[in-house]
Specification:
Blueprint (H helix, E strand, L loop, with lengths): L2 E7 L2 E7 L3 E5 L6 H21 L7 H10 L12 E5 L3 E6 L2 E6 L9 E6 L20 H13 L8 E2 L5 E6 L4 E6 L4 E3 L5 H22 L6 H19 L6 H8 L1 H23 L10 H17 L4 E7 L7 H14 L6 E6 L2 H27 L13 E7 L2 E2 L14 H21 L2
Parallel strand pairs: 3-13, 3-14, 7-12, 12-13
Antiparallel strand pairs: 1-2, 1-4, 4-5, 5-6, 8-9, 9-10, 10-11, 14-15
Helix pairs in contact: 4-9, 5-7, 5-8, 6-7, 9-10
Length: about 450
């Protein structure tokens, strides 16, 4: 996975982490959870952007200012001593006020395309009447609303998406352009008339279903701009594979001979567009072509297969517990882990809730216990088998006073959350309880 270090950004003084498939950050308000989540989200998005450009040369101070500082409302978080470094599979970025250095890693040439989404804690904003016509600044909240407008259309033709076991299902009414809840009694109400908990959990469940399921079994409608960008990425990678000793071959030609690049891109884009059209008609357009062309087509098709649609998802979820009863928080966490493919996807969760941690611990315990008796574990617990997760896929970090508490996860040698963590969380409450109970007798 990726390595992340942050110094003096917002409430973060210094952290240094090896990110896992699933990372959970817990801590009090203003401890830096969202700061970490937003920087990771930016870096994951940047990695995808560089893959689509097949280049890192476009990333500069203005780029970081626009896509991180301003987009994530973090301008005041950065100072003259701020710095961060992210080393992912495809790129390495080092930021300081005086220098931004982005480099390709050895994995860049083979990096697949991701689908990324930042799910903010302010999910209830979708239920505000008139929100879709309100002019908003170009930030993460605006981006979330834009994403939602695209995602909800996938749920207009059924079946309705069940929201946990809350006796409600979601569907999008495309006729009147509204988000709807179908109740078990048959009534239909707008999401805006649902409880605050439903207004928070419904978009979260729908987005997670879309990111972990829908996109892998359906083909997205893409704009002409997106198709052009995907085609250019395929062409750039194809050319890079032909000239492996040149790190930025197409980029160098683009600078020295833009007409040549434009002609080449136009020619190969035409082949790709023709290929897509005929594939949709189940036709074969290479019959009768030369062997040289068939070899070229096979290589181009392989590159195109790896870049024409997402191969994994990166999800960043802020406060999944927002406005939810503890029992529902636990069921939501089970739902999230049952949907996320820990062999394929990555997940960041920020939370204030110990119930989220209890639920994660249960999922890891179930994974350990099933090795003794899988059938019995399924019958005795309410944890879906799909939510069982190996401890080596999960890292749980407690942020405190601008750093990771005790510079390590709060997990024991088996990967489970330590008993003393839960004991500490409950200590003050139970201490007061035992004092007061004596006076109530």
């Amino acid at each position: 996975m990726a390595h992340l270090s942050i110094e003096n950004i917002g409430p973060i003084k210094k952290i240094d982490l090896e990110l896992n498939r699933i990372n959970i950050f817990i801590g009090p308000q203003s401890s830096g959870k969202s700061t970490v989540a937003k920087i990771v989200s930016f870096c994951q998005w940047l990695e995808k952007d560089c893959i689509l450009n097949q280049s890192v040369s476009h990333v500069d101070k203005e780029y970081v200012t626009r896509h991180l500082w301003e987009y994530h409302n973090m301008s005041s978080f950065f100072h003259e001593d701020s710095a961060f470094q992210y080393v992912g599979k495809g790129i390495e970025i080092s930021y300081s006020p005086n220098k931004i250095d982005v480099k390709k890693t050895p994995g860049f040439r083979d990096m697949l395309l991701s689908k990324n989404m930042y799910l903010p804690s302010e999910r209830n904003v979708l239920a505000i009447p008139g929100i879709y016509t309100t002019k908003l600044p170009d930030n993460y909240l605006h981006g979330f609303i834009d994403d939602w407008i695209i995602i909800r259309e996938k749920y207009s033709s059924g079946p309705d998406l069940r929201i946990l076991d809350l006796k409600e299902s979601y569907f999008f009414n495309s006729k009147n352009n509204s988000d709807m809840l179908l109740l078990d009694n048959g009534r239909r109400i707008p999401l805006s008339e649902g409880s605050s908990g439903l207004q928070s959990v419904t978009p979260l469940c729908v987005c997670i279903d879309y990111l972990t399921d829908w996109i892998y079994f359906h083909k997205e409608d893409t704009s002409a701009y997106d198709r052009k960008r995907y085609n250019e990425a395929v062409i750039a990678r194809y050319i890079a594979n032909q000239v492996p000793e040149e790190e930025d071959f197409l980029e160098n030609i683009r600078k020295s001979n833009p007409e040549r690049v434009s002609a080449l891109v136009q020619k190969l884009s035409g082949i790709l567009d023709r290929m897509h059209t005929l594939q949709s008609r189940e036709s074969d357009f290479i019959t009768g072509e030369s062997q040289e062309f068939k070899d070229f087509f096979e290589e181009l098709s392989l590159v195109e297969k790896n870049l024409n649609r997402p191969s994994f998802s990166n999800l960043v979820v802020e406060e999944p517990e927002k406005n939810l009863f503890p029992d529902t928080q636990i069921k939501l966490l089970y739902y999230i882990l049952s949907k996320v493919n820990s062999e394929r996807d990555s997940l960041i969760i920020t939370t204030h809730s110990p119930y989220i941690l209890y639920a994660v611990n249960n999922c890891m315990l179930a994974s350990m216990a099933h090795k003794e008796n899988e059938k019995e574990i399924e019958e005795l617990t309410n944890i879906p088998k799909e939510a069982w997760i190996d401890t080596d896929k999960v890292s749980v970090w407690e942020l405190d006073n601008g750093s990771v508490r005790e510079d390590s996860t709060i997990q024991d040698e088996k990967g489970l959350i330590r008993d003393n963590y839960f004991d500490r969380i409950m200590h003050n409450v139970m201490a007061d309880f035992h004092i007061l109970i004596d006076y109530s007798r």
